Protein backbone atom coordinates (compact mmCIF):
# COMPACT_ATOMS: atom_id res chain seq x y z
CA UNK A 1 0.00 0.00 0.00
CA UNK A 2 2.89 2.37 0.65
CA UNK A 3 4.42 1.91 -2.80
CA UNK A 4 3.99 5.07 -4.83
CA UNK A 5 3.40 4.32 -8.52
CA UNK A 6 6.25 5.57 -10.69
CA UNK A 7 5.33 7.76 -13.66
CA UNK A 8 7.12 5.50 -16.13
CA UNK A 9 4.82 2.62 -15.15
CA UNK A 10 1.90 4.61 -16.52
CA UNK A 11 2.51 3.72 -20.15
CA UNK A 12 -0.26 6.05 -21.39
CA UNK A 13 1.63 9.10 -20.15
CA UNK A 14 5.11 8.08 -21.35
CA UNK A 15 6.51 9.22 -24.66
CA UNK A 16 10.00 7.78 -24.28
CA UNK A 17 12.11 6.08 -21.63
CA UNK A 18 15.48 4.43 -21.38
CA UNK A 19 18.99 4.60 -20.00
CA UNK A 20 21.07 7.71 -20.69
CA UNK A 21 24.23 9.03 -19.12
CA UNK A 22 23.62 12.37 -17.41
CA UNK A 23 26.42 14.81 -16.73
CA UNK A 24 26.62 15.77 -13.07
CA UNK A 25 26.24 19.40 -12.18
CA UNK A 26 29.39 19.63 -10.06
CA UNK A 27 32.56 18.59 -11.87
CA UNK A 28 34.86 16.34 -9.86
CA UNK A 29 38.62 16.50 -9.54
CA UNK A 30 38.85 14.39 -12.71
CA UNK A 31 36.52 16.61 -14.73
CA UNK A 32 32.86 16.11 -15.52
CA UNK A 33 31.30 12.91 -14.34
CA UNK A 34 28.67 11.01 -16.29
CA UNK A 35 26.18 8.86 -14.39
CA UNK A 36 23.90 6.24 -15.91
CA UNK A 37 20.26 7.22 -15.27
CA UNK A 38 16.87 5.79 -16.21
CA UNK A 39 15.22 8.71 -18.01
CA UNK A 40 11.52 9.17 -18.67
CA UNK A 41 9.87 11.71 -20.96
CA UNK A 42 6.18 12.26 -20.20
CA UNK A 43 3.78 14.68 -21.83
CA UNK A 44 4.79 17.40 -19.36
CA UNK A 45 8.01 16.40 -17.57
CA UNK A 46 11.47 14.92 -17.93
CA UNK A 47 12.37 12.66 -15.00
CA UNK A 48 15.54 10.75 -14.20
CA UNK A 49 16.04 7.90 -11.75
CA UNK A 50 19.06 6.02 -10.36
CA UNK A 51 17.77 2.96 -12.25
CA UNK A 52 14.54 1.61 -13.73
CA UNK A 53 13.50 0.02 -10.41
CA UNK A 54 13.86 3.24 -8.39
CA UNK A 55 10.65 4.50 -6.83
CA UNK A 56 11.64 8.15 -6.45
CA UNK A 57 13.25 10.26 -9.19
CA UNK A 58 16.67 11.75 -8.51
CA UNK A 59 15.40 14.79 -10.38
CA UNK A 60 12.69 16.10 -12.66
CA UNK A 61 11.72 19.27 -14.46
CA UNK A 62 8.85 20.51 -16.63
CA UNK A 63 9.92 20.14 -20.25
CA UNK A 64 7.70 22.92 -21.60
CA UNK A 65 10.13 25.76 -22.35
CA UNK A 66 13.22 23.64 -22.96
CA UNK A 67 14.94 23.15 -26.29
CA UNK A 68 16.63 19.91 -27.28
CA UNK A 69 19.63 19.72 -29.58
CA UNK A 70 22.43 17.34 -30.45
CA UNK A 71 25.82 18.56 -29.20
CA UNK A 72 29.03 16.70 -30.06
CA UNK A 73 31.10 19.20 -28.01
CA UNK A 74 29.99 17.76 -24.66
CA UNK A 75 32.46 14.87 -24.72
CA UNK A 76 35.88 14.31 -26.20
CA UNK A 77 35.70 10.49 -26.41
CA UNK A 78 34.18 8.12 -28.97
CA UNK A 79 30.65 8.78 -27.72
CA UNK A 80 30.68 12.51 -28.48
CA UNK A 81 28.19 12.11 -31.37
CA UNK A 82 25.71 10.48 -28.96
CA UNK A 83 25.31 13.64 -26.84
CA UNK A 84 22.43 16.07 -26.58
CA UNK A 85 21.46 19.03 -24.41
CA UNK A 86 18.23 20.32 -22.94
CA UNK A 87 18.40 24.11 -22.65
CA UNK A 88 16.06 26.72 -21.25
CA UNK A 89 16.87 30.43 -20.86
CA UNK A 90 17.23 31.31 -17.19
CA UNK A 91 17.12 27.68 -16.06
CA UNK A 92 19.58 24.86 -15.58
CA UNK A 93 20.70 23.03 -18.71
CA UNK A 94 20.94 19.24 -18.80
CA UNK A 95 23.46 17.19 -20.77
CA UNK A 96 22.99 13.56 -21.76
CA UNK A 97 24.75 10.80 -23.68
CA UNK A 98 22.63 8.14 -25.37
CA UNK A 99 23.81 4.58 -26.08
CA UNK A 100 23.99 5.34 -29.83
CA UNK A 101 23.81 8.23 -32.30
CA UNK A 102 20.39 7.02 -33.50
CA UNK A 103 19.09 6.89 -29.93
CA UNK A 104 20.34 10.44 -29.24
CA UNK A 105 18.60 11.66 -32.40
CA UNK A 106 15.39 9.89 -31.36
CA UNK A 107 15.41 11.53 -27.92
CA UNK A 108 15.92 14.96 -29.50
CA UNK A 109 13.19 14.37 -32.10
CA UNK A 110 10.70 13.13 -29.49
CA UNK A 111 11.35 16.15 -27.28
CA UNK A 112 11.13 18.60 -30.20
CA UNK A 113 7.85 17.00 -31.34
CA UNK A 114 6.46 17.27 -27.80
CA UNK A 115 7.53 20.91 -27.51
CA UNK A 116 5.92 21.75 -30.84
CA UNK A 117 2.76 20.02 -29.63
CA UNK A 118 2.79 21.92 -26.31
CA UNK A 119 3.22 25.27 -28.07
CA UNK A 120 0.46 24.56 -30.58
CA UNK A 121 -3.27 24.86 -30.11
CA UNK A 122 -3.96 22.17 -32.69
CA UNK A 123 -3.28 18.48 -32.42
CA UNK A 124 -0.56 17.38 -34.82
CA UNK A 125 -1.28 14.47 -37.10
CA UNK A 126 0.55 12.52 -39.76
CA UNK A 127 0.71 13.93 -43.30
CA UNK A 128 -1.30 10.93 -44.56
CA UNK A 129 -4.09 11.79 -42.11
CA UNK A 130 -4.01 15.43 -43.22
CA UNK A 131 -4.38 14.40 -46.88
CA UNK A 132 -7.31 12.11 -46.00
CA UNK A 133 -8.98 14.94 -44.05
CA UNK A 134 -8.51 17.35 -46.97
CA UNK A 135 -10.03 14.80 -49.37
CA UNK A 136 -13.00 14.29 -47.02
CA UNK A 137 -13.52 18.06 -46.79
CA UNK A 138 -13.44 18.34 -50.60
CA UNK A 139 -16.04 15.55 -50.90
CA UNK A 140 -18.27 17.25 -48.33
CA UNK A 141 -17.90 20.52 -50.21
CA UNK A 142 -18.82 18.85 -53.52
CA UNK A 143 -21.82 17.16 -51.85
CA UNK A 144 -22.99 20.51 -50.48
CA UNK A 145 -22.57 22.18 -53.86
CA UNK A 146 -24.54 19.48 -55.66
CA UNK A 147 -27.33 19.48 -53.06
CA UNK A 148 -27.53 23.29 -53.24
CA UNK A 149 -27.87 23.17 -57.02
CA UNK A 150 -30.59 20.49 -56.70
CA UNK A 151 -32.49 22.65 -54.23
CA UNK A 152 -32.18 25.65 -56.51
CA UNK A 153 -33.48 23.71 -59.51
CA UNK A 154 -36.43 22.41 -57.45
CA UNK A 155 -37.23 25.91 -56.26
CA UNK A 156 -37.21 27.28 -59.80
CA UNK A 157 -39.88 24.72 -60.89
CA UNK A 158 -42.35 26.00 -58.31
CA UNK A 159 -45.03 28.40 -59.43
CA UNK A 160 -43.43 31.81 -58.91
CA UNK A 161 -46.82 33.33 -58.00
CA UNK A 162 -47.28 30.94 -55.05
CA UNK A 163 -45.72 32.00 -51.79
CA UNK A 164 -42.68 29.86 -51.08
CA UNK A 165 -42.91 30.02 -47.27
CA UNK A 166 -44.89 27.43 -45.35
CA UNK A 167 -48.19 28.69 -43.97
CA UNK A 168 -48.08 28.12 -40.23
CA UNK A 169 -51.86 27.96 -39.94
CA UNK A 170 -53.75 24.84 -40.85
CA UNK A 171 -57.29 24.89 -42.18
CA UNK A 172 -59.28 22.22 -40.39
CA UNK A 173 -62.01 20.29 -42.22
CA UNK A 174 -65.39 21.91 -41.79
CA UNK A 175 -63.91 25.34 -41.21
CA UNK A 176 -63.60 28.06 -43.74
CA UNK A 177 -60.82 30.55 -43.42
CA UNK A 178 -62.02 33.86 -41.91
CA UNK A 179 -65.54 32.55 -41.31
CA UNK A 180 -66.76 34.03 -38.09
> What's the arrangement of strands in the largest beta sheet?
4-3-2-1-7-6-5
Helix content: 25-40%
The helix count comes to 2
Question: What would CATH call the homologous superfamily of the domain at 14-24 and 33-121?
Answer: Pleckstrin-homology domain (PH domain)/Phosphotyrosine-binding domain (PTB)
Radius of gyration: 32 Å
Low-confidence stretches: 1-9
Question: What is the molecular shape?
Answer: elongated
Distance between the termini: 84 Å
Which CATH class of the domain at 14-24 and 33-121 is shown? Answer: Mainly Beta
Secondary-structure content class: alpha+beta
What's the story with the biggest beta sheet?
7 strands, antiparallel
Pattern of helices and strands: EEEEEEEHH
The second-level CATH architecture of the domain at 14-24 and 33-121 is Roll
User: What's the CATH topology label of the domain at 14-24 and 33-121?
Assistant: PH-domain like
Mean pLDDT metric: 78
Number of strands: 7
Q: What percent of residues are in strands?
A: 15-25%
InterPro entries: PH-like_dom_sf, PH_domain, SKAP_fam
Pfam families: PH
Region (Disordered): 124-180
Main location: membrane
List keywords for this structure.
180 residues, disordered N terminus, seven-stranded antiparallel β-sheet, 23% strand, PH-domain like
Description:
- It is found in: Cell membrane; Cytoplasm; Nucleus.
- Residues 125-140 have a biased composition (Acidic residues).
- InterPro entries: PH-like_dom_sf (IPR011993), PH_domain (IPR001849), SKAP_fam (IPR037781).
- It comes from Hippolais icterina.
- Keywords: Cell membrane, Cytoplasm, Membrane, Nucleus, Phosphoprotein.
- Mean pLDDT is 78; it is low at 1-9.
- The protein has helices spanning 101-119, 127-157, and strands spanning 14-23, 34-42, 45-49, 59-62, 67-70, 83-87, 94-97.
- It starts with 13 loop residues before the first strand and ends in a 23-residue tail after the last helix.
- The chain has a domain at 14-24 and 33-121: Pleckstrin-homology domain (PH domain)/Phosphotyrosine-binding domain (PTB) (PH-domain like, Roll).
- It has 180 residues and is of the alpha+beta class.
- The protein is elongated, with a radius of gyration of 32 Å.
- The longest helix is centred in the last third of the chain and has 31 residues, at 127-157.
- It is built from two helices and seven strands; from the N terminus they run βββββββαα.
- A hairpin with a 2-residue loop joins strand 2 and strand 3.
- The protein has a seven-stranded antiparallel β-sheet with strand order 4-3-2-1-7-6-5, covered by helices on one side.
